[in-house]
Amino acid sequence: MSSRVAVVTDSTASLPARLADRFKIITVPMQLKIGSELIDEAYVPTDRLLRAMEAQIPITTQPPAPDAFFWAYQDAWAKGAETIISVHVTPKLSPATDAAKAAAAKSRVPVFIVDSHSSGMTLGFAALAAARIVQSGGNVQNARSVAEQRGRDANVLIYVDTLHYLRQAGRVSAAAKLFGDALSVKPLLTVVNGEVEPFDKVVGRDRALAKLVDKAVALAYGRNADLAVEHFAAEKEGHELLQMLQKRIPHARDVVLTQVSAAIGANVGPGALAVTVSPY
């Protein structure tokens, strides 16, 4: 990748380390407040987060530590970057973008902030798209434009065992709050204009996941797209879901299985699964 342009994102992108390393994407960690302790999420193992959730210890997500973006930009500048593209979780889900903008105002080099309009691999694929263009020698304007387009065009479909954690975090829309709490009824969600919205509810987990697969196949039909399955503490189920999708969407280019960041995991709860279809 050209050292003259750096790509920065935040950890809600949930990018597998192998991809972030391959494309030299700088990832700034969000923070979690577990009880009274504030920690960079990079230092929160999944088992610790699960124990805290089981014990009903209050957990909140917060933007990166003060000046974390500034020092990421400084480090990129020190390594030769003359411009930075910084791609982030939508401001409707986190104030991380505000922190990035404040850091950009103090940066030694120009920083272009891109709103992914979501989080997770919608954000991850947007950052990857920018990094790919930069790596191939493309210009900053094109990389920025493509990242913005990928964020706008992507669709994420989310399965959760319960809405409890999303409600607790204040992450669901008024419409989603109307969903009942019957254990057999499984809500299927999406992100619209930065808000978590319902798109269906199905009785039973297997039927819900089958519905999610059908919807993803319809979204990918006739389009060039990247595909991701994201999970929280459900790797086996995520792998099975990915296999189902690959059989029905064989033309997908990048196919990614990843655990969501701890910050997202705290919001969706254990057992959550999501599919991102990102046209290119």
Automatic annotation (TrEMBL):
Pfam families: DegV (PF02645)
Entry superkingdom: Bacteria
InterPro entries: DegV, DegV_C, DegV_domain_contain
Keywords noted in UniProt: Lipid-binding
Statement: the UniProt record of this protein carries the keyword Signal: no
Coiled coil segments of this chain: none
Gene Ontology molecular functions: lipid binding
Protein name in UniProt: EDD domain protein, DegV family
